[in-house]
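pasting for ref
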Amino acid sequence: MKTLTVFLLIFLLSFSAFGQQLRKQDDDQRSTIPSRPQQAMAVPVSVVMDGPVDAKEYIVGPGDIFAISIWSAVPLNFQVPVTPEGTIVIPTVNEIVISGMKLEEAKKLVLAEIRKKYLSGNASFTLYSPRTFVVTLKGAVKQEGKQFVQATQRVDVVVNNRLDERDRVDTLIAQRNIIVEHKDGTRQVADIEKYYATRDRTYNPLLQDGDVIIVPQRTIKRNFIAVYGAVNKEGSYEFAEGDSLLGMLAIARGLTKIADSSKVMITRYDDNSRPQHIMADLRSIKTGSSMDIPLQRGDRIIVYEEYIYQRAASITVSGEVKYPGTYPITKDSTTLSSIILLAGGITPQASLKNSQLYRRSVNAEEIAIERLESGRGGITPDDSAYYYLETDIRINRELVVTDFPELLEKKNIGKDVFLRDGDEVHIASRKKTVYVFGQVVNPGHVLYASGKGVDYYINASGGVTNDARSDIKVIKAATRQWLDPEDTVIEEGDYVWVPKEPYRPVSYYLTVYSQVFGIVATVVSLIILVAR
């Protein structure tokens, strides 16, 4: 029994010393790892990743650091790098070549070698720190050259991270047909646009040591496919060999919610520039009952929208109604009287005679063009100022001829009108006054008196001043028209405008008189000549 106890103590002490020796060797190895060369370009410090490393995709190379754990009687934990020769050295186990292997294969190989030495217990072999290496960027980029990357980064990082924010908006750097040349002579084609659309990593491969990335010129004007209609990102995209209808719609970020997936049209031009229209049903393609359609350079794809009869149309009601606000309407069926009813009807303070229905036929984006087009008439300079004033009023807000008293008071449905999207209904308030302003002694509101003329309201305002002109105007409350007093009847809410005689210096009158006398002298001279 004593002999067995002594034997066990000797074994444990020996194993402990062996473990300490392994840790010391591991520390020595890590201390001898050469530091990365200091270059002008910055070397990433932290690991940049877009998710966990895929062991089936990641390729092991020199500089990777692995963590090894062996759970035995005395657990062992240490880190080992992949040497420049592409091997890892596991103390007490073996030197194993793993460079160029997929991570999944390297794991199986290393764990198998560890189990040959340590028959009992478990072991793990884990990527602890991905390596940093150099790749070369060439082609249609602003600055060709070498760049430090991490083994967890992909082609798009190198291509697009060299662009500044201005270039990101409109760049000539291609996002498709990018060539990746590996050190072993093999090639891959990267398609960043399709990767962003599908998240399929085969279109955006991981970078490898010494890769050369060749970016072609972005010739979208000659090498394109256009997508229009009910997609989330309309526009023209670079064409790549092997493009299909489903793939291109994915690049256009898919269909919108109102897309009609049963109705897609591809327009293609033959050698004689004659259009061919190919109709496709995406539902049958997705279910497999129809084949996906290969695309050609220059194809145009149109995704139709589902026809929706009900559109988001509304009008605004303001003024003397019980419930002012915005109300939905249906095209060519909602009438003015029905909307007034929805708004709770008019209040006792409403002035139907001065109420108005406004309509905007020109949207805000088209106002400038409408003004330019309105100047084509070739009108005289004397008429132009007045015409442009009336045109501006029409562009910003047109009046719809409406007889509110006949419609709402007398219930004459023949005076009803159909409303359109964006219309504004304003029920005016009763003012019970006429506003007199301009060259009067006391400008202001004068109590309305039925049947009274201009003189009554001017006298009620204290009469005209010494500077008043005789061409007095009545401005109608409903239409803002300027009329002569003899051409209209003053109504509640109207305005009376008394203009001012403009001041003119003596030189003005001398000029006028001299011109008149000159004309008279000329006429007299002609008469005398004729009489002789």
